[in-house]
Amino acid sequence: MTRDPDLLERLAGALSYPTAGFVARVAECGEALAREHPAAAARLARFASFALGAGVAALEEAYTSAFDVAPLASPYVGDQLFGASRERAHLLSALRELGREAGLAPGPELADHVAEVLRLAAAPIPDDVRDDLLRDGLGPALVKMLAALEEARHPWADVVAAAVDVLVPRAGAPAARAPEAP
Predict the structure, then answer these.
(1) pTM of the entire structure?
(2) Is the Cβ–Cβ distance between 3 and 167 less than 8 Å?
(3) What is the sign of the dihedral through the CA atoms of 80, 105, 25 and 134?
(4) Cβ–Cβ < 8 Å for 114, 77
(5) pLDDT digits (tens, 9 = 90+) for 150-168
(6) Which end of the chain, N or C, is more open, meaning fewer C-beta atoms within 10 Å of its C-beta?
């Protein structure tokens, strides 16, 4: 599990809705991962190749089908862990407060969106809180998301797999699989 703020920010960008420069950011994230996380880098390279070939509209549509409208995998940590419950409401409140304390401006998504949680983990928060957030919140949510996206053979599985490879301790979770030939 990484604590590197730059790497956490890069992963957050890769798990965000695609905007201008998105493919280049994904490729840069893959390059930053290449030495220490080659399987993650390979998954991001495969996704970047898909994204370049798909074009902007198809990439946005793929994101929406994966994470937004009737999503294959909800990108919200609280939803993955607790569903629509009081526990999720408490998590959202705690994440917003932690973000305020860290001096983060609210992002475009709810506080428990995987990209927002990664940005929070990259912020100046206590290491034990960051570790708990990544290990007990984000990691299990990403593993659930990955299972759903891989079952559907969805292209965004590559991005989630890269995050799992980097953030989930290897002993307790499935490793991100190396890409298959197209």
Answers:
(1) 0.89
(2) no
(3) negative
(4) yes
(5) 999 999 999 999 999 999 9
(6) C
Note the pLDDT of residue 71. 86
Q: Which of 144, 147, 154, 137 is nearest to 64 (CA)?
A: 154
**pLDDT > 70 in the chain, percent:** 92
What residue type is assigned to position 102 of the chain?
A
Written as six digits, the tokens of 59 are 């990439």
Contact between 44 and 27 (Cβ < 8 Å): yes
Reading phi first (left if > 0) and then psi (alpha if -120 to 50, else beta), residue 180 is in beta
Closest CA to 77 of 11, 33, 139: 139
The DSSP code for 113 is B
* C-alpha Rg value of the chain to the nearest Å: 15
